Amino acid sequence: MMVTLMDIAVLIKQSLDVQELRVDQDTGKIYIEEAPTKAGDIDLNAAEEAVRIKEKVGGKATAIMLSTWGASGKRLKEAKEALKRVLAMGLDDAVLIMGEEGQKADTYVVAKTLAEVIRDNYQLVLAAEGSDDNFSGLLPARIAAELDWPFIAYATALELEGEYVKVTRSLEDYEEIVRVKLPAVIAVTQEINKPRVPKLMDIVKAGKKPLDQRDFTPPSEPKIAIRELKVPKVERKNVIIEGDVEEAAEKLLQALKEEGVL
Amino acid sequence: MKVLAYGDVLDLALELVAAGRGISDNVVLLVAGDQEEKIQGLKGPNEVLLCKDVKSYDQESLVELITSIARDFDAILLPNDRRGRELVGVIAHKIGGSAATDVSSLRLENDVILIERITLGGKAIAVEELSLPAVMTIQKGRFKPLEDIEPEIREIKAPKIERRIEVLEKKEKPRVGVPLDKAEIVIAVGRGFKKKEDLKLAYELAEILGGVVGATRPLAADLKWMEEEVWIGISGVRVAPKVLVVVGASGQQQFSAGIMDSKIVVAVNNDSSAPIFEHADYGVVMDLYQFLPALIKKLKEAKGA
Amino acid sequence: MVDFDIIVVGAGPAGSVASYLLAKKGHTVLTIERGKRPGSKNMFGGRLYAWSLEKVFPNFWEEAPIEREVTREVLGLLYGDDGIEISLNGKPKAKSFTILRAKFDQWLAEKAEDAGAEIVSGVKVESPLIEDGKVKGVIVEGEEKIESSIVVAADGALSFIAEKAGLRAKLSGEDFAVGAKEVIELSKDAIEDRFRLEENEGAAQLYIGDITEGVVGGGFLYTNKDTISLGVVMRIGSLSEKVSNIETTMWNATERFKSHPLIGRYLKGGKLLEYSAHIIPETQFLRGVKLCTDGMVVVGDAAGFCVNYGLTVRGMDFAIESAIAAAEAIDIALEKGDTSASSLRRYEEALSTGMLREFEKAKKAVDLMEDQRIYTSLPKIAVNTARHLFHVDGKPKEGLYQFLRRSMSEEGISLLSALLLSWKALKSL
Question: Given this model, what pLDDT does residue A1 score?
């Protein structure tokens, strides 16, 4: 396959806005339905990287989202809003796959679905190393496996060299610079770039960019089922140490000694 | 039920073996690379598979090696570090298995593995049913290595692969002394420090207490005042010290989820409404620039005495 | 060529209603909201009198996310641990509702969006774009200029858009009251039981007394579906003389209000969901505001269309009414192709025959409310009198008249001024 222009698929997750998620420590209730959703934070880094590549070598970048929140009007609106955000940054168009069945879909099912959208149409897939709400990072890996494309995670720098892409991959104790022939799937970290803040008129125009909405039909059964969501319980003493600086220092050391930790 | 554990750091790999024992009497440890000497006398797994011709971290070869023997196993356990997390999705998909990361507990129930993992930015624990075969990464420090069984060691050959990822360069990152997640005393610093030089207060405190210094995300990743490796949080390092002293950090959810396993949490912040106080056993509502010197002085006096 | 016919700054009730009406007329409308989304900067509830919004959306309550229809009005006088409550029960002809702004504002904004307005959230407008002395659009963060024929300033009490366009002066503490609000979660059953309500019925309860420690103001309770909006309003002007830290003062007053036995009983077992203090504009401020200039009008709180009667704060219904009038004037101005101040003055004229009159009255009421004795002496005398009337200890009782005379002289109030005070207090409701 001769690739002249780069066509990039950017995976955008409709992630729960965990900052706004309310959790009741006493009753253990997690107010998921009430919490808003948005594009994942690191998804914006993936989108930014796609726009930068586009600015250098041309081509097209598509935001691809499979919403797993059902098909309610509220979640649809939020999904479109999330896509509008990255379109405003400079992606060209968007594919939104949504349906009631999405609620049961796991990364296996989502990867199978998205791989079919990507195959034959894109040469590079950019994704976040993890989503805001689940942070498993499984989806891009599974898509790579499904497409049988190489997968590189934890990318902190990217450079295109013809049919190759050079990636700095940051692991715990070392980083390596690797080169891989396209097509490939790359998951980026938040350090790779600073996502641009779109201009207001770009946001307005983003609403008019093509958005291809498709119904979701699961290609297979999921591999996992979520049985329950629990609130983690950590009991803290919440003692505020009073007094002036000297007294407080003294009291704190005393307390730590009594705890047997100093 | 048969479980395969793989980890290129042996200490961690033995934790995985212990995790696997919870769901199976037959746990096989896969060791890659030049580790023949290290595995002599090693205890815990029922069997050790040694593959000398795959380097300790070579993603493509490992994926191929593990998937080639995967059909013999119902579950594959990997460490929850970046290596493990990069492998888990690819291997799971290639063998048509379920997958999970950040697993903190697991047990067998009928024909599924029931796991717990932290999710929703640390606000919830998900209980998930994984169908078999299952591939998962296990959180560090959750399982105590067992030393009961003396395993057979068997050498295996790596399958041939067609390499697609070429490593051009490899750079060690600077080491940061005792790893944060193993430290018994941790000082965590946040945006309350006005300039980088002021962090010396935290280092001084750490030195007296015999602890190490970690940081919130803005300090490590954005301001780059410190190494990225010392960034504490749900997506950074999760700490579990005896004492954690949080200085000048507001206690964002992201950060707080990474300190849940600390035994005692002390918070120093001049804003009494900072959420960190909800996550603290002892709170000091004071300017860190006044309180830390006083605390250091007291500790020095106590040492001198 | 302008980018939009109209730019509306702020997607609160006034901004969204103006956006809706103008988009429906076929104009291109851009609504810029500073918060993450409409309503997100307003976590709390309030009371909405239906009369103005009804003109835009008849029977809106059947569709809008309202909490409860107010059927129970309570006035309370608190003194020490005791208190008197006077209640009026029944369905009034003119409806009013308790609402939670986060939901309600979003609903209104969606209405505007459905009508064709373009709503962009999370963007801050830095200033109006002024050329040749005329407002020609806005400048948003990042120094981006967006042009429009008309700008509608609906950016709330602290409107710096109006200020920068020279429509209002810089504000001082005198122009504001401070409100502290909490949302407390309580089961639907507990709310209906404790406030004696049927399903979907709501209570609006106002209290004066020593909770504000002599400062002009009072406390309120509104019932929502499964939460209670509670708070204290205090006049900044009278506050700033007495206290240095307004935040602490507000917090303390709220705590005093909540822990009063009479109030605590309503809240028992409830869980605090939100707390915040915010600023409420006062009518006096209207004296200095101009409602339009070339290419721009000011609506809602931004124009000071908010009356603090001392006990009740009314803003949303006025804000909506002003938005309706503004939209009409703008539509005509655009039709004529004349967006000058004189062409837009129709907006002010439309208000002057109706709503502004209400404001004149309100101003007087507010002046009367400055009488601090309403917040101190009146509740004290009333509660003590009730104690005298109802409490029996077997000892001979002083006659009621003597008792009243003595209580009033202790407070330095004559009978006549006591009656006057009571009259003022009632008027201020």
Answer: 45
| Other Cβ atoms within 10 Å of A60 Cβ, number | 16
Q: Could you say which architecture CATH assigns to the domain C4-70+95-171+284-367?
A: 3-Layer(bba) Sandwich (3.50)
Overall fold of domain B180-304: Rossmann fold (3.40.50)
What residue ranges do the domains of chain B occupy? Answer: 3-155, 180-304
Nearest chain A residue to C114, by CA? A77
Contact B166 A175 (CB under 8 A): no
Per the CB < 8 A criterion, the answer to whether C60 and C50 are in contact is yes
Closest Cβ opposite residue C140 in set A22, A200, A207: A200
Which residue in chain A is spatially nearest to C122 when comparing CA positions?
A: A200
Domains, in order of start, for chain A: 7-233 (3.40.50.620)
Residue C187 in 3-state DSSP? coil
Chain C residues with beta carbon closer than 8 angstroms to that of A22: 273
Q: What sign does the CA torsion over B253, B255, B257, B261 have?
A: negative
| CATH code of domain C174-281 | 3.30.9.90
Q: How confident is the model at residue C381, as a pLDDT?
A: 86
H and E: helices and strands count for chain A: 6, 13
Residues in B closer than 8 angstroms to A232, CB to CB, are 118, 122-125, 260
Across the range B28-45, mean pLDDT stands at: 92
**Measured between beta carbons, which residues in chain B are less than 8 angstroms from residue A134?**
119-120
pLDDT at C150: 97
pLDDT at residue A3, rounded to an integer: 46
Domain spanning B3-155, CATH architecture: 3-Layer(aba) Sandwich (3.40)
A4 pLDDT more than 70: no
pLDDT in tens, B100-145: 999 999 999 999 999 999 999 888 999 999 999 999 999 988 899 9
Taking phi first (over 0 means left), then psi (-120 to 50 degrees means alpha), and beta for anything else, what does residue C59 get?
left
The pTM of the whole model exceeds 0.90: no
Count CA atoms within 13 Å of residue B211 on its CB side.
26
- As a whole number of angstroms, the distance between CA A12 and CA A43 comes to 6
Same fold, B3-155 and B180-304: yes
Position A195 pLDDT exceeds 70: yes
Q: A38 to chain B nearest CA, in Å?
A: 13
Confidence at residue B293, expressed as pLDDT on a 0 to 100 scale: 95
- Interchain proximity A226–B100, CB inside 8 Å: no
- Best of C8, C31, C36, C120 to substitute, by most chain A Cβ atoms within 10 angstroms, is C120
